[in-house]
Amino acid sequence: MKLDGRVALVTGAGQRVGRAVALALATAGASVAVHYNTSAAGANDTVKQIAARGGKATGFGADFRDEAALNALVPSVVGSMGRLDVLVNSASIFRDFRLFETTNHEWDENFAINVRAPFVLSREMAKSLGGRPGKIINLNDWQTNRPKRFAYGVSKAALTGLTKTLASALAPNVQVNEVALGAILLPPGAPPEYEAVLTAKIPAGRMGRPDEIADAVLWLIGNDYVTGETIRVDGGQHVSRGS
Protein backbone atom coordinates (compact mmCIF):
# COMPACT_ATOMS: atom_id res chain seq x y z
CA MET A 1 0.00 0.00 0.00
CA LYS A 2 1.18 3.49 -0.88
CA LEU A 3 0.15 6.20 1.57
CA ASP A 4 -0.48 9.02 -0.88
CA GLY A 5 -4.18 9.84 -0.73
CA ARG A 6 -4.79 7.51 2.21
CA VAL A 7 -6.14 8.33 5.66
CA ALA A 8 -4.56 6.88 8.80
CA LEU A 9 -5.85 6.92 12.36
CA VAL A 10 -3.19 6.76 15.08
CA THR A 11 -4.47 6.38 18.63
CA GLY A 12 -2.55 7.99 21.44
CA ALA A 13 -0.81 10.24 18.90
CA GLY A 14 -0.41 13.22 21.20
CA GLN A 15 2.80 11.98 22.75
CA ARG A 16 5.71 9.56 22.74
CA VAL A 17 5.70 6.74 20.16
CA GLY A 18 2.21 7.49 18.87
CA ARG A 19 3.33 10.98 17.88
CA ALA A 20 6.40 9.63 16.06
CA VAL A 21 4.23 7.21 14.09
CA ALA A 22 1.74 9.94 13.17
CA LEU A 23 4.53 12.21 11.93
CA ALA A 24 6.08 9.41 9.89
CA LEU A 25 2.77 8.49 8.24
CA ALA A 26 2.14 12.14 7.35
CA THR A 27 5.64 12.48 5.90
CA ALA A 28 4.94 9.41 3.76
CA GLY A 29 1.83 11.06 2.32
CA ALA A 30 -1.11 10.05 4.52
CA SER A 31 -3.65 12.40 6.03
CA VAL A 32 -3.59 11.59 9.74
CA ALA A 33 -6.37 11.42 12.30
CA VAL A 34 -4.58 12.22 15.56
CA HIS A 35 -6.41 10.60 18.47
CA TYR A 36 -5.96 11.71 22.06
CA ASN A 37 -7.63 11.38 25.43
CA THR A 38 -5.93 13.49 28.10
CA SER A 39 -3.12 14.79 25.86
CA ALA A 40 -5.10 17.43 23.97
CA ALA A 41 -2.22 19.91 23.99
CA GLY A 42 0.17 17.25 22.74
CA ALA A 43 -2.23 16.21 19.98
CA ASN A 44 -2.59 19.82 18.90
CA ASP A 45 1.20 20.05 18.72
CA THR A 46 1.30 16.87 16.60
CA VAL A 47 -1.25 18.37 14.21
CA LYS A 48 0.78 21.60 14.00
CA GLN A 49 4.01 19.71 13.32
CA ILE A 50 2.35 17.77 10.49
CA ALA A 51 0.94 20.99 9.00
CA ALA A 52 4.36 22.65 9.23
CA ARG A 53 5.75 19.81 7.12
CA GLY A 54 3.08 20.32 4.50
CA GLY A 55 0.87 17.44 5.62
CA LYS A 56 -2.75 17.15 6.69
CA ALA A 57 -3.96 16.16 10.15
CA THR A 58 -7.02 16.52 12.35
CA GLY A 59 -7.34 15.88 16.08
CA PHE A 60 -10.02 13.59 17.53
CA GLY A 61 -10.63 13.25 21.26
CA ALA A 62 -12.04 10.06 22.78
CA ASP A 63 -11.81 8.33 26.15
CA PHE A 64 -11.67 4.62 25.35
CA ARG A 65 -13.21 3.76 28.72
CA ASP A 66 -16.38 5.42 27.40
CA GLU A 67 -18.09 2.92 25.10
CA ALA A 68 -20.08 5.58 23.25
CA ALA A 69 -16.96 7.65 22.57
CA LEU A 70 -15.09 4.57 21.40
CA ASN A 71 -17.87 3.47 19.05
CA ALA A 72 -18.09 6.96 17.56
CA LEU A 73 -14.40 7.45 16.74
CA VAL A 74 -14.12 5.65 13.39
CA PRO A 75 -17.42 7.08 12.05
CA SER A 76 -16.20 10.53 13.10
CA VAL A 77 -12.90 10.07 11.26
CA VAL A 78 -14.60 8.76 8.12
CA GLY A 79 -17.21 11.51 8.24
CA SER A 80 -14.59 14.22 8.61
CA MET A 81 -11.78 12.88 6.43
CA GLY A 82 -13.74 10.86 3.88
CA ARG A 83 -12.24 7.42 4.45
CA LEU A 84 -9.98 5.34 6.67
CA ASP A 85 -7.28 3.05 5.24
CA VAL A 86 -4.76 2.55 8.04
CA LEU A 87 -5.29 2.04 11.77
CA VAL A 88 -2.41 2.13 14.25
CA ASN A 89 -3.48 1.18 17.76
CA SER A 90 -0.88 2.89 19.91
CA ALA A 91 -2.90 4.11 22.92
CA SER A 92 -2.18 2.10 26.07
CA ILE A 93 -2.04 2.25 29.84
CA PHE A 94 0.94 0.92 31.77
CA ARG A 95 0.67 0.78 35.55
CA ASP A 96 2.39 -1.16 38.34
CA PHE A 97 -0.04 -3.47 40.13
CA ARG A 98 0.87 -7.00 41.15
CA LEU A 99 -1.71 -9.78 41.28
CA PHE A 100 -3.12 -9.07 44.74
CA GLU A 101 -3.06 -5.32 44.11
CA THR A 102 -5.07 -5.68 40.92
CA THR A 103 -8.68 -4.66 41.50
CA ASN A 104 -11.55 -5.51 39.18
CA HIS A 105 -11.54 -1.86 38.11
CA GLU A 106 -7.83 -1.96 37.25
CA TRP A 107 -8.36 -5.16 35.25
CA ASP A 108 -11.29 -3.67 33.35
CA GLU A 109 -9.42 -0.46 32.52
CA ASN A 110 -6.45 -2.35 31.08
CA PHE A 111 -8.68 -4.49 28.91
CA ALA A 112 -10.86 -1.55 27.86
CA ILE A 113 -7.91 0.45 26.57
CA ASN A 114 -5.40 -2.22 25.56
CA VAL A 115 -7.77 -4.80 24.01
CA ARG A 116 -11.38 -3.66 23.60
CA ALA A 117 -10.44 -0.39 21.91
CA PRO A 118 -8.27 -2.05 19.22
CA PHE A 119 -11.04 -4.61 18.68
CA VAL A 120 -13.83 -2.05 18.26
CA LEU A 121 -11.75 0.30 16.10
CA SER A 122 -10.61 -2.57 13.88
CA ARG A 123 -14.16 -3.84 13.46
CA GLU A 124 -15.53 -0.40 12.61
CA MET A 125 -12.67 0.35 10.24
CA ALA A 126 -13.22 -2.95 8.40
CA LYS A 127 -16.90 -2.10 8.01
CA SER A 128 -16.02 1.29 6.55
CA LEU A 129 -13.63 -0.20 4.00
CA GLY A 130 -16.37 -2.07 2.16
CA GLY A 131 -13.88 -4.54 0.69
CA ARG A 132 -11.12 -2.04 -0.06
CA PRO A 133 -7.55 -2.85 1.10
CA GLY A 134 -6.58 -1.77 4.59
CA LYS A 135 -3.84 -2.07 7.20
CA ILE A 136 -4.12 -2.52 10.97
CA ILE A 137 -1.03 -2.37 13.17
CA ASN A 138 -1.15 -2.89 16.92
CA LEU A 139 1.68 -1.62 19.09
CA ASN A 140 2.43 -4.22 21.72
CA ASP A 141 5.12 -5.09 24.28
CA TRP A 142 7.99 -7.49 23.67
CA GLN A 143 7.30 -9.00 27.12
CA THR A 144 3.77 -9.82 28.25
CA ASN A 145 4.73 -11.98 31.25
CA ARG A 146 4.93 -9.11 33.73
CA PRO A 147 4.02 -10.02 37.33
CA LYS A 148 4.73 -6.43 38.44
CA ARG A 149 2.12 -5.17 35.93
CA PHE A 150 -0.29 -8.06 36.08
CA ALA A 151 -3.37 -6.74 34.26
CA TYR A 152 -1.23 -4.88 31.73
CA GLY A 153 0.73 -7.99 30.82
CA VAL A 154 -2.36 -10.18 30.44
CA SER A 155 -4.10 -7.54 28.31
CA LYS A 156 -1.08 -7.27 26.03
CA ALA A 157 -1.00 -11.06 25.64
CA ALA A 158 -4.66 -10.82 24.65
CA LEU A 159 -3.75 -8.15 22.10
CA THR A 160 -1.47 -10.67 20.37
CA GLY A 161 -4.38 -13.09 20.17
CA LEU A 162 -6.59 -10.33 18.77
CA THR A 163 -3.97 -9.48 16.14
CA LYS A 164 -3.73 -13.04 14.87
CA THR A 165 -7.48 -13.65 14.87
CA LEU A 166 -8.21 -10.36 13.10
CA ALA A 167 -5.59 -11.28 10.50
CA SER A 168 -7.55 -14.45 9.73
CA ALA A 169 -10.98 -12.82 9.90
CA LEU A 170 -10.11 -9.87 7.65
CA ALA A 171 -7.98 -11.65 5.03
CA PRO A 172 -7.25 -11.20 2.21
CA ASN A 173 -7.99 -7.48 1.89
CA VAL A 174 -6.78 -6.27 5.28
CA GLN A 175 -3.39 -7.15 6.75
CA VAL A 176 -3.19 -7.10 10.55
CA ASN A 177 0.15 -7.18 12.35
CA GLU A 178 1.77 -5.99 15.56
CA VAL A 179 5.03 -4.31 16.49
CA ALA A 180 6.38 -5.46 19.87
CA LEU A 181 8.33 -2.66 21.51
CA GLY A 182 11.34 -3.01 23.71
CA ALA A 183 12.79 -0.17 25.78
CA ILE A 184 12.11 2.87 23.61
CA LEU A 185 11.48 5.71 26.04
CA LEU A 186 11.86 5.86 29.81
CA PRO A 187 8.56 5.47 31.68
CA PRO A 188 7.13 8.81 32.87
CA GLY A 189 8.68 9.74 36.20
CA ALA A 190 11.57 7.28 35.92
CA PRO A 191 14.90 8.58 37.28
CA PRO A 192 17.57 9.24 34.61
CA GLU A 193 19.81 6.53 36.05
CA TYR A 194 17.15 3.95 35.16
CA GLU A 195 18.31 4.10 31.55
CA ALA A 196 21.60 2.44 32.53
CA VAL A 197 19.65 -0.34 34.24
CA LEU A 198 17.64 -0.94 31.08
CA THR A 199 20.48 -0.78 28.58
CA ALA A 200 22.49 -3.32 30.60
CA LYS A 201 19.82 -5.89 29.62
CA ILE A 202 19.69 -5.01 25.92
CA PRO A 203 22.00 -6.85 23.50
CA ALA A 204 22.02 -3.81 21.19
CA GLY A 205 23.59 -1.83 24.04
CA ARG A 206 21.17 1.08 23.89
CA MET A 207 17.54 2.05 24.11
CA GLY A 208 15.49 2.27 20.94
CA ARG A 209 14.14 5.39 19.31
CA PRO A 210 10.51 6.21 18.45
CA ASP A 211 11.46 6.65 14.79
CA GLU A 212 12.61 3.01 14.72
CA ILE A 213 9.09 1.95 15.68
CA ALA A 214 7.69 4.25 13.00
CA ASP A 215 10.01 2.62 10.44
CA ALA A 216 8.62 -0.82 11.33
CA VAL A 217 5.06 0.46 10.96
CA LEU A 218 5.86 1.92 7.55
CA TRP A 219 7.44 -1.35 6.43
CA LEU A 220 4.33 -3.31 7.41
CA ILE A 221 2.12 -0.86 5.55
CA GLY A 222 4.26 -1.25 2.44
CA ASN A 223 4.21 -5.06 2.49
CA ASP A 224 0.98 -6.76 1.45
CA TYR A 225 2.19 -10.33 2.05
CA VAL A 226 2.76 -10.16 5.81
CA THR A 227 -0.20 -10.65 8.14
CA GLY A 228 -0.75 -12.06 11.62
CA GLU A 229 2.90 -11.38 12.40
CA THR A 230 4.75 -9.90 15.37
CA ILE A 231 7.75 -7.72 14.51
CA ARG A 232 9.94 -7.25 17.58
CA VAL A 233 11.79 -3.96 17.78
CA ASP A 234 13.51 -4.56 21.10
CA GLY A 235 17.25 -4.52 20.48
CA GLY A 236 17.35 -8.29 20.96
CA GLN A 237 15.83 -8.38 24.45
CA HIS A 238 13.63 -11.37 23.59
CA VAL A 239 16.69 -13.54 22.90
CA SER A 240 18.78 -12.34 25.84
CA ARG A 241 19.01 -14.33 29.03
CA GLY A 242 19.83 -11.13 30.85
CA SER A 243 16.43 -9.70 30.04
Order of helices and strands: EHEHEHEHEHEHHE
User: Beta fraction of the residues?
Assistant: 15-25%
Compute the separation of the termini in Å.
36 Å
Kindly give the count of domains: 1
SS elements, strand count: 7
The secondary structure category is: alpha/beta
Task: Summarize, please.
The chain has 243 residues and is of the alpha/beta class.
Detailed description of the structure:
The chain has 243 residues and is of the alpha/beta class. It has one domain (7-239): 3-Layer(aba) Sandwich (Rossmann fold), CATH 3.40.50. Helix content is 44%, strand content 16%. The protein has 7 helices and 7 strands, in the order βαβαβαβαβαβααβ. Strands 3-2-1-4-5-6-7 form a 7-stranded parallel beta sheet, with helices on both faces. Strand 5, helix 5 (150-170) and strand 6 (174-181) form a beta-alpha-beta unit. The longest helix is centred in the middle third of the chain and has 26 residues, at 104-129. The mean pLDDT is 95.
Entry keywords:
7 helices; alpha/beta; Rossmann fold; globular; 7 strands
Please render the helix and strand layout as text.
Layout: E1 7-10, H1 16-27, E2 31-36, H2 40-52, E3 57-61, H3 67-81, E4 86-89, H4 104-129, E5 134-141, H5 150-170, E6 174-181, H6 194-199, H7 210-222, E7 230-233
Parallel strand pairs: 1-2, 1-4, 2-3, 4-5, 5-6, 6-7
